[in-house]
Design brief:
The protein folds into three domains: 135 residues, Alpha-Beta Complex (Conserved hypothetical protein from pyrococcus furiosus pfu- 392566-001, ParB domain); 62 residues; 51 residues, no CATH class. Helices cover 40% and strands 13% of the residues. The chain has a six-stranded mixed sheet with strand order 1-2-6-4-5-3. Strands 7-8-9 form a three-stranded antiparallel sheet, with helices on one face. The radius of gyration is 32 Å and the shape is elongated.
C-alpha cells in the first residue's frame, strides 16, 4: 500500500455524502507508513462500488492474482476485521454534453482507476462489499514511481512482474530511457536492462499458454532462452517443444517449462555437434619407418591432416592417399 503522506497534497476531499467516512486511528489520522506517528492532515475515505473501479492498463499484477486463491490473505482478513487499509484511486473524467454539462450517471460507467489496491478491488467485489478508497490526482509518471517503490517493499511481487512493468513504462514513454527509470528507482541501469530483456520471453508464440503461472518465470533462465532463440534453428526447436507440450494439454510450472525448452535446444546442439564432429577418419601409410597420414573430414566438409614422420614420407604416396581418402569420404 502507498504511503498516504505522499498523496496528501494531491488528495481530493470528497463532497459530503452519506458514504463519506474519515478514518482517524488512535494517535492521529490514517498513515500507512507509520500508524504510531500522529498526523495533522485528515484523509477522507469513501466507499465505492468495486465494479465501478477499473485497473490501469499497465498495472503490475498478472491475472493469476485476481482469484480467490490469489487474494486469500486479504479476503480472510476482511472477513474477520473488515478493510483497514483503503485503496488509492484516480477519478475518471466523466463525459459531458455539448454544453459542457455532466451527463446523467448511468450507474455502471467506471468512476475510478485503481492506482494502488488491485487485489483489494477484487476482494471487495468477491465479498460483495464496497471498496474503501482515497482519491488522488497523481500523474502517470508519479503513479509509476509510487508503484515501483511499493513493489520494492512487497515481497509477493515477483521479479518477472517487475520486468513486465518496467518494460511497459519504457514502451509507453512514462520514462524516456532505461537510465531515466533506473535513476528514479535508484537501481543500476544494468539491472533495469536485465529485467526488461527478460520480459521479452513471453513474446515467444505459445509459451504463456503452457505455463501455470507466468509471473514465476525466472529472470536468468528467461534471458538464456531469449539469447538462444536468436538463432533461427533454436527458435524452431523451442516452438516444436512448446507445440508438443500443448498437445498434452498439461500446464507446467514456469521453471520446468523453460528448462525443458533450454534442454531441448542444448540436446539438439550436442547431437548435431557429434554428427558434425567426424564423418571420415583414416590413417594411411605414406612412407618408410611408420610414416603415416591421418585424414579427418567432418560433415561440413572440413578436412584436417596430420602427418607422422614427414621426413620419411613419399610425396607420391601422400597424393595417392589423399585422393583415396577423398573418394572414400565423398564417394
Amino acid at each position: 500500500m502507498f504511503d498516504a503522506n505522499k498523496l496528501v497534497s494531491k488528495a481530493k476531499t470528497v463532497s459530503t455524502t452519506k458514504e463519506r467516512k474519515m478514518i482517524i486511528p488512535e494517535g492521529g489520522t490514517w498513515n500507512s507508513s507509520n500508524q504510531n506517528q500522529p498526523q495533522k492532515t485528515k484523509l477522507f475515505v469513501e466507499d465505492v462500488d468495486p465494479k465501478r473501479c477499473i485497473l490501469l492498463d499497465w498495472h503490475d499484477r498478472t491475472e493469476s492474482w485476481f482469484t480467490p486463491e490469489g487474494c486469500k490473505d486479504i479476503i480472510d482478513s476482511w472477513r474477520l476485521h473488515g478493510q483497514k487499509t483503503p485503496a488509492i484511486g484516480k477519478p475518471i473524467v466523466q463525459p459531458v454534453d455539448d454544453n459542457g454539462k455532466p451527463l446523467p450517471d448511468d450507474g455502471k460507467s467506471p468512476l475510478f482507476v485503481i492506482i494502488a489496491g488491485a487485489r483489494r478491488r477484487f476482494s471487495a467485489e468477491f465479498l460483495g462489499q464496497n471498496l474503501k478508497l482515497i482519491r488522488s490526482n497523481l500523474t502517470d509518471r508519479e503513479i509509476a514511481i509510487e508503484q515501483e517503490i511499493e513493489n520494492g517493499k512487497d515481497q509477493d511481487v515477483t521479479q518477472f512482474e517487475k520486468a513486465l512493468s518496467w518494460q511497459r513504462h519504457i514502451s509507453s514513454g512514462r520514462f524516456e530511457t532505461q537510465l531515466d527509470l533506473a535513476t528514479e528507482l535508484t537501481v543500476t541501469n544494468s539491472h533495469v536492462s536485465n529485467l526488461i530483456k527478460a520480459a521479452d520471453v513471453i513474446k515467444i508464440p505459445g509459451l504463456v499458454d503452457i505455463l501455470k503461472d507466468p509471473k514465476t518465470i525466472q529472470i536468468k533462465e528467461a534471458n538464456e532462452l531469449i539469447k538462444l532463440i536468436k538463432i533461427e534453428k533454436n527458435k524452431k526447436i523451442a516452438l516444436r517443444e512448446i507445440s508438443s507440450i500443448k498437445e498434452k494439454e498439461k500446464l507446467l510450472d514456469a521453471d520446468i517449462a523453460i528448462q525443458f525448452l533450454l534442454d531441448g535446444i542444448k540436446k539438439d546442439t550436442v547431437k548435431n555437434d557429434k554428427k558434425k564432429a567426424v564423418q571420415y577418419k583414416k590413417d594411411w601409410v605414406v612412407g618408410k619407418n611408420e610414416s603415416s597420414l591421418n585424414v579427418r573430414i567432418n560433415r561440413d566438409g572440413d578436412a584436417s591432416f596430420k602427418i607422422k614422420g614427414f621426413r620419411n614420407s613419399d610425396p607420391k604416396a601422400m597424393r595417392k592417399a589423399l585422393l583415396k581418402a577423398y573418394d572414400e569420404a565423398c564417394g
